[in-house]
Amino acid sequence: MTRRGTRHSGREAREPGEATSPPALGFRARRNLQEKAIGFFLFACAALSTLVTVGIVFVLLSETLSFFREVSIVEFLTHTRWEPMFQEKHFGILPLAAGSIQIAAGAAVIALPAGLLTAVFLSEYAPRPLRAWLKPILEILAGIPTVVYGYFALTFVTPLLRVFFPETDIFNAASASIVVGIMIIPTVSSLSEDALRAVPEALREGAYGLGATKLEVSTRVVVPAALSGIVASFILAISRAIGETMAVTIAAGARPNLTWNPLESIQTMTAYIVQASLGDTPHGTVVYKTLFAVGMTLFVITLVMNVLSQWVLARFREEYE
After folding, report:
1. Residue 317 near residue 307, CB atoms below 8 Å
2. 180 near 115, Cβ under 8 Å?
3. Stretch 62-68: mean pLDDT, rounded?
4. How far apart are CA 94 and CA 35, in angstroms?
């Protein structure tokens, strides 16, 4: 007859009412303390970034309001001459704003179609081994210093343009637009490819089952399904082009010229900030305050672009189960 006995594990079973041993209580206390410390550290990081943002906005806003106590906001927004450093001063920001918009528009003409087509190729056509080394090589463009792009435009792109258009200025908007467009291609292609690859495979298989070709699947199924992410990548890339500094400072020049001719020299808002903040501007003067007024204008433009991209993502995002 088999003898049955009570099996005991190495640790005695604790009755429901039995108190927890002191070592277990110490371990729980240490773990709770560690969790609270980690939570406090993460909160401090989030609070620090928020405080830095609030501090930047406060400094920009306070100096901008001080500037508008001396200069009319109507003149600032509507006049067509920007000459704050001359004896006879003019504070119309339109030439700088037009220069920034011109550079961003030219860069968008180059980067948006090139980046989207690159993303479609990487997502739908490229074999996995090719994608594995082609995408990192493409993203190297984003890691090149912008000052290198500026000198590339000055020493290669501009001489090439002058071969076809001899009237091109040495510093011109066209060469700056070209190099900024090249610079933001990785932003468009990387974000767009992520949006394309997030489209469920079932949509592709359903289109193939209906007899669609790969091109039709890519252009009529995948791209429309990922449209919100693609448009958001476009807006983010354009906002980066508007805020680009060193490349346009070197390539486009420093002449606040209200013109839409891309072969002429212009000045952008960021280029003016570089020019006026070299250390020669006396603190507290109206010229010094123009730095903050122009910076606030640039901040508002990029903020609107980023808010617009978030709205596009929230409004047109497709959710799949």
Report:
1. no
2. no
3. 91
4. 53
Q: What is the mean pLDDT of residues 40-44?
A: 91
- Alpha-helical runs (H) found in the chain: 22-68, 73-78, 94-120, 128-143, 146-152, 158-164, 173-197, 201-209, 214-217, 223-225, 227-243, 246-252, 269-276, 286-316
Residue type, 269: M
pLDDT digit string (tens) for 252-306?
Answer: 988 888 888 899 999 999 999 888 877 677 777 888 889 999 999 999 988 888 8
Q: What residues does 90 pair with on adjacent strands?
A: 83
The pLDDT of residue 10 is: 44
Q: How confident is the model at residue 121 (pLDDT cuts 50, 70, 90)?
A: very high
pLDDT at 51: 92
Read off the amino acid at residue 70: E
Looking at every residue in the chain, the average pLDDT score rounds to: 85
Q: Which CATH class is domain 99-254+302-316?
A: mainly alpha
Contacts of 142 (CB under 8 A, 6+ apart): 183, 186, 187
Buried b (16+ CB within 10 A) or exposed e, 218-254: beebbbebbebbbbbbbbbbbbbbbbbbbbbbbbbbe
Q: Cβ distance 81 to 95 under 8 Å?
A: yes
Q: What percent of the chain has pLDDT over 70?
A: 90
Phi, psi of 275 (to 5 degrees): -65, -40
